[in-house]
Amino acid sequence: xxxxxxxxxxxxxxxxxxxRVRAAGLVREQSGSDLVVLPELWTVxxxxxxxxxxxxxxxxxxxxxxxxxxxxDARVWLHAGSVVERAxxxxxxxxxxxxxxxxxTALFFSPDGELVHAYRKIHRxxxxxxxxxxxxxxxxPATVPLPTTTLGLATCYDLxxxxxxxxLTDAGAKTLVVCxxxxxxxxxxxxxxxxxxxxxxxxxxxxxGTAGTHAGVPQAGRSVIVDPxxxxxxxxxxxxxxxxxAELDPAYVDTVRADFPVLRDRVLR
Length: 269
Ligand SMILES: O=C(O)CCC(=O)C(=O)O
Description:
- By secondary structure, this protein is an alpha/beta fold.
- Helix content is 26%, strand content 26%.
- The chain has helices at 16-29, 52-55, 62-74, 130-134, 162-170, 187-201, 250-259; strands at residues 2-7, 35-37, 77-86, 102-109, 115-120, 142-145, 150-155, 175-179, 204-208, 213-214, 217-218, 224-226, 232-235, 242-247.
- It binds 2-oxoglutaric acid.
- 2-oxoglutaric acid binds next to loops.
- It holds the Pfam family CN_hydrolase.
- This is Carbon-nitrogen family hydrolase.
- It comes from Streptomyces taklimakanensis.
């Protein structure tokens, strides 16, 4: 299974619609891959809090529409990164300034262009500010069965919470996909945690960040694909716009888990 991570540049001077068209073009260029991943909040910018409400969109909004077409044209499974979702009837009053119905929601499409899963980020970043103050939290861990592996989905700050990844593993995930807009200041945490989640869960980790600077926050980039033994298969060398590609062997997860059966030795559940 060939996986490609698109470490997309999020330049505040590029209009959002132009970036959608550009991202769709990059997805189409990955038609030789089976699975393609985009980063977190690449339309608006993960730190562009002031724009969240104005750029919020429903699950059938402009990002979903163009990504559905791109997945279908490229014939790929597409993790289209996340959008600021405005969920009608979720508690807000529907006005542009009301944030109670906003979620950071990752969209996952089949090669037929069908939206097969929408994962609302469970751990919101910012402590008492930023995303944590502006958005609601998701509640449901997300697994997505593909023909060759089962994906577990996580978004950015979720990477710091090993219990989510263990829950995904318990639910059958063998390939853990993280979309992110991770700051450069904590790049060392990003690389370390991506490998740790792979080793402790004996799973592939596909971690896709953004390039560029959003709202004055330089991004880490360094998107990475790690195998179930903790070996890095491919990694972006910096925070530029890059496509990171590797071949995954889904059966290797079972081999590692059988040969070195630490998951079987768990005591605390
Ligand atoms: O945990 C971190 O250091 C970064 C998290 C983050 O930027 C996010 O979740 O948007």
